[in-house]
């Protein structure tokens, strides 16, 4: 599932992409580009980006026709993918994404939202007082929504779901039997921008949040939608209170995360993982299956399957205990 809620203003001729990036080139300028996607999901006639060597194995297999990248990384791309060499990959990717999806930068309040009592959903949902619903919202059977919650535009909620009070949902797909407790914000844009002396430049977030079946999101938690890919919570995964999940994070099935944990953007958490309270996980990391991370730990590198770690920087439990007797 990719970008079901955002309007793609393309396709564009590749010459328009070059103009956006202020690039002069002798390449064929007549090819049509349909969309911008990440390396993994990009298809023929799409443009993608490649900015870190750690993604070289995925880059080698991309089906994209064009890739925004650097001089040092371009040779990892397959023959079907023409490199577009730039100085700053992420800024260039942001400019191209905004061209395709100009309405995905800001998250102003949803002016389309109306009282649920004035919609056909009033006969389907058991709702508290002052519940608002925006455009393009679907809600399944046997669902409950607490007081003062806002289901903003572009939300799909499955059957047997419970949404707490004072919660905001947007650009999200909530599968069956999911519980979202009070004071959560799910599906808003992520913390993505490029610092500048005069004005910080934000980049578009065209992904969504997907929360799979039988999961629970604790009070006061925030889950950002993805930038070019989706943010996803696996089946039967439980999040405690006051947890932050940044854009593009993928969390596997049967995972338990205790309170005040923060997971930075584009990290991947495996299945059957347990994370103790107040742990922090840096961005673009991979935590394997059956991993246990002790409370208060700081994870700054990948963790293999079947590992127990603790401390800052996080290390094996045995090594941590040996060094802290």
Radius of gyration: 21 Å
Number of helices: 4
From the 3D coordinates, which CATH architecture of the largest domain would you assign? 3 Solenoid
Structural class by secondary-structure content: mainly beta
Under CATH at level 1, the class of the largest domain stands as Mainly Beta
- Per DSSP E runs of 2 or more residues, the count of β-strands stands at 37
Strand order of the largest sheet: 8-11-14-17-22-25-28-31-34-36-37
Largest sheet: 11 strands, mixed
CATH topology of the largest domain: UDP N-Acetylglucosamine Acyltransferase, domain 1
What is the global morphology? globular
Structure description:
The protein is 10% helix and 27% strand. It folds into 2 domains: 12-100, MurE/MurF, N-terminal domain (Udp-n-acetylmuramoylalanyl-d-glutamate--2,6- Diaminopimelate Ligase, Chain: A, domain 1), CATH 3.40.1390.10; 114-323, 3 Solenoid (UDP N-Acetylglucosamine Acyltransferase, domain 1), CATH 2.160.10. The longest helix has 12 residues, at 89-100. The mean pLDDT is 94. It has 4 helices and 37 strands. The protein is mainly beta and 325 residues long. The protein has an 11-stranded mixed β-sheet. Strands 7-9-12-15-18-23-26-29-32-35 form a 10-stranded mixed β-sheet, with no helix packed on it. Strands 10-13-16-21-24-27-30-33 form an 8-stranded parallel β-sheet, with no helix packed on it. The relative contact order is 0.08.
């Amino acid at each position: 599932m990719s970008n079901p809620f955002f309007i793609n203003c393309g396709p564009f001729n590749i010459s328009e992409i070059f103009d956006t990036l202020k690039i002069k080139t002798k390449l064929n300028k007549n090819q049509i580009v349909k969309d911008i996607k990440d390396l993994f999901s990009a298809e023929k006639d799409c443009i993608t980006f490649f900015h870190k060597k750690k993604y070289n194995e995925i880059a080698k297999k991309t089906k994209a026709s064009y890739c925004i990248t650097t001089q040092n990384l371009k040779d990892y791309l397959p023959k079907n993918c023409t490199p577009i060499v730039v100085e700053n990959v992420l800024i260039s990717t942001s400019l191209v994404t905004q061209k395709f999806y100009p309405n995905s930068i800001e998250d102003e309040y949803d002016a389309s939202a109306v009282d649920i009592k004035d919609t056909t959903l009033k006969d389907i949902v058991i709702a508290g007082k002052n519940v608002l619903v925006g455009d393009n919202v679907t809600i399944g059977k046997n669902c409950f929504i607490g007081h003062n919650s806002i289901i903003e535009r572009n939300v799909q909620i499955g059957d047997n779901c419970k949404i707490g009070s004072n919660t905001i949902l947007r650009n999200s797909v909530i599968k069956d039997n999911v519980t979202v407790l009070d004071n959560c914000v799910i599906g808003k844009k992520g913390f993505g921008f490029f610092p500048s002396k005069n004005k910080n430049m934000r980049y578009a977030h065209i992904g969504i949040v997907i929360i799979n079946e039988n999961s629970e999101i604790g009070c006061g938690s925030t889950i950002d939608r993805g930038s070019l890919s989706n943010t996803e919570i696996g089946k039967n995964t439980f999040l405690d209170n006051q947890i932050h999940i940044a854009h593009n994070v993928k969390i596997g099935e049967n995972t338990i995360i205790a309170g005040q944990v923060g997971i930075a953007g584009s990290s991947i958490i495996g299945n059957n993982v347990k994370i103790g309270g107040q742990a922090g996980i840096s961005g673009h990391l991979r935590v394997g299956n059956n991993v246990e991370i002790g409370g208060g730990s700081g994870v700054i590198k990948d963790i293999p399957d079947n590992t127990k770690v603790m401390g800052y920087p996080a290390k094996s439990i045995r090594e941590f205990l040996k060094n802290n007797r």
